[in-house]
From TrEMBL:
Coiled-coil boundaries: none
Boundaries of every Thiamine pyrophosphate enzyme N-terminal TPP-binding domain copy: 5-134
Family according to the record: Belongs to the TPP enzyme family.
Endoplasmic reticulum as UniProt keyword: no
PANTHER family registered for this protein in UniProt: ACETOLACTATE SYNTHASE CATALYTIC SUBUNIT, MITOCHONDRIAL, THIAMINE PYROPHOSPHATE ENZYMES
Pfam families: TPP_enzyme_C, TPP_enzyme_M, TPP_enzyme_N
Protein name (Swiss-Prot/TrEMBL): Acetolactate synthase-1/2/3 large subunit
Length: 553
């Protein structure tokens, strides 16, 4: 009977589970994996594509981006504890956004000698930990350390199924080098997967109650933060909002749930509608409003709907839930819409429609000033509806028209910065015919380890537009100080210690080091032409970067 090592079995088994890519930052624990991969490639086996990533944060972000485009979980392999530590921020981001992925890292050999794969160099001692999985345990749904080679198939099956079960999220597998070097029968790896993900169907009684509340509401409000889950649900939700004249707010939206110019979209701020709402539907929103700023009307009923409507992995979250409906948004939201299908909208819908029509029109960004809003408006003129925009403390959704499913993604609320650039690269890898734009602040661009990202993009031929809105500071920190201490010394003197990033590096040279097209934009009148030229470079197959010097918000 043919034998293979456990390390050799990993890629074939991941392929059998439907994984497209394995994003890898390798180390001295990888020899059995690399040898097995080389043998499988020489044999012509069909395997997931191995992507070498010179930084772990890029690997995690790219796996996140592929998921957003395909809905299929991907795998990441890192080097022992040090690689896992660098990948931990990506795991936190994925956990916050319910993004499934299989995260693996080697474990320094246990044996100090006398066993194949035992320790050979000083890092074998230096990288050992009492509890390596603790680095990511709080961000992962499940973790395990491989004990025997014959476990590799069942363990990967279990990891894949748990990652995709509701609520979805990352899982972690530790891989000791000695175990990876041991053998198992090759035929065991070819067996069909033994486990399937577990979904959660919304409770029919809860759906009927929610439908009754919403249908009879005088002043309902919907707050949607993480999209609708699918293109079909996106279309159904937009139509339902129109039919019922349901106001929809997108407070800190990380995914688009409704077109920004939809007649029922009331913008990001739920405050004006929340103040007198009698029924509030919260669609997969971790923090649907600002408690100290947005008071809930007395007696208002709140419906929380989503894969984890109470967000159980967060220690404290006390937003009301008079009714909680659990289920993947792509299924639960259409189910709720269906439960309302036999109820006529009635006269209250017409009153809501009149109120929506009378709401103020947001002011357009002031021309002539280079601000984030002005950059957003210029991008809005240049991009079509199918372009996917990743924004991380970059351009605001309020100034950028977006109209389709998967056309907008914002940084996770976990705030692990450096996300947008690699996530956009993952999206472009998964959808090469789609125009992808990453826009981020200068601080976020630095956090992304841009040299590593540009190297990967050049190696893979990923042509996307990167827009750095550069105010030479951590603008979010400045805004937070001004928010908490509006009359404080920092605000009065406009001196904000610990927020400045001047002098700003020449980001164009960073991009050009990997042969990217790059341009610095300093005046508003240069912006439209620069965006057009950058998109033309992307169409020619090059990554393009714009370093746009913007004024502080």
């Amino acid at each position: 009977m043919a034998q293979i090592t456990a390390g050799s079995a990993i890629f074939p088994r991941l392929g059998a589970l439907g994984v497209d890519y394995v994003f890898v930052n390798s180390g001295t624990d990888f020899p059995p994996i690399i040898e097995g991969l080389a043998r499988a490639m020489a044999d012509g086996q069909r395997l997931p594509r191995a992507i070498a990533c010179p930084h772990e944060h890029a690997a995690m972000g790219m796996a996140h981006g592929v998921w957003l485009m395909t809905g299929r979980p991907q795998a990441v392999m890192l080097h022992t504890n040090v690689g896992l530590a660098n990948g931990a921020i990506g795991a936190i981001n994925a956990a916050c956004e319910h993004v499934p992925m299989i995260l693996m890292s080697g474990r320094t050999p246990v044996a100090e000698g006398g066993r194949f794969g035992a320790r050979t160099v000083p890092i074998g001692w230096g990288q050992e930990m009492f509890d390596q999985a603790a680095l990511v345990r709080e961000a992962c749904k499940w973790d395990y350390e491989l004990r025997f080679p014959e476990q590799i198939g069942p363990v990967l099956d279990r990891a894949h199924a748990i990652a995709q079960s509701t609520p979805k999220g990352p899982v972690y597998l530790s891989l000791p080098r000695e175990v990876l070097c041991e053998e198992l029968p090759a035929e065991a790896v070819a067996a069909p997967p033994t486990l399937r993900p577990a979904g959660v169907a919304p409770d029919p009684a809860a759906l009927r109650t929610a439908a009754d509340w919403l249908a009879s509401a005088q002043r309902p409000l919907v707050i949607a933060q993480r999209g609708c889950g699918s293109a079909a649900a996106f279309a159904a939700f937009g139509q339902w909002a129109s039919d019922w004249a349901m106001p929809v707010a997108s407070w800190w939206a990380t995914h688009l749930a409704i077109a920004t110019d939809h007649p029922c979209h009331v913008g990001a701020d739920p405050g004006p509608y929340l103040a007198d709402a009698d029924v509030v539907l919260v669609v997969n929103a971790l923090a649907p409003w600002w408690p100290d700023k947005h008071p809930l009307a007395p007696g208002a009923k709140v419906i929380q709907l989503g894969p984890d409507p109470l967000f159980a992995r967060f220690p404290m979250r006390s937003f009301p839930a008079d009714l909680a409906i659990a289920g993947e948004t792509a299924a639960a939201l259409p189910a709720l819409i269906g439960a309302m299908a036999d109820r006529p909208p009635g006269s209250t819908a017409e009153a809501r429609r009149a109120r929506l029509a009378a709401r103020p029109v947001p002011a357009a960004p002031s021309p002539g000033r280079l601000t984030k809003a002005q950059v957003a408006a210029a991008l809005g003129h240049a991009l079509d509806d199918e372009t996917t925009v990743f924004s991380e403390l970059g351009v605001p959704l309020s100034a950028l028209p977006r109209r389709t499913h998967r056309s907008w993604f914002q940084e996770p609320h976990s705030g692990g910065l450096g996300w947008a650039f690699p996530a956009a690269m993952g999206a472009k890898l998964a959808a090469p015919d789609r125009v992808v734009v990453a826009t981020m602040g200068d601080g976020s661009y630095i956090f992304a380890n841009p040299t590593a990202c540009h190297q990967i993009a050049e190696a893979l031929g990923l042509a996307l537009l990167v827009v750095v809105v550069n105010n030479a500071e951590w603008g979010a920190v400045r805004a937070s100080v001004a928010q908490l201490y509006p009359e404080g010394m920092a605000a009065k003197t406009n001196a904000m210690p610990l927020t400045g990033l001047a002098p700003s590096p020449d980001f164009c040279q960073t991009a050009q080091a990997s042969r990217a097209w790059a341009r610095r934009v300093e005046r508003a009148e240069e912006l439209d032409a620069a965006i057009a030229d950058g998109l033309a470079a992307v169409a020619d197959g090059r990554l393009a970067l714009l370093d746009v010097q913007v004024e502080p918000d």
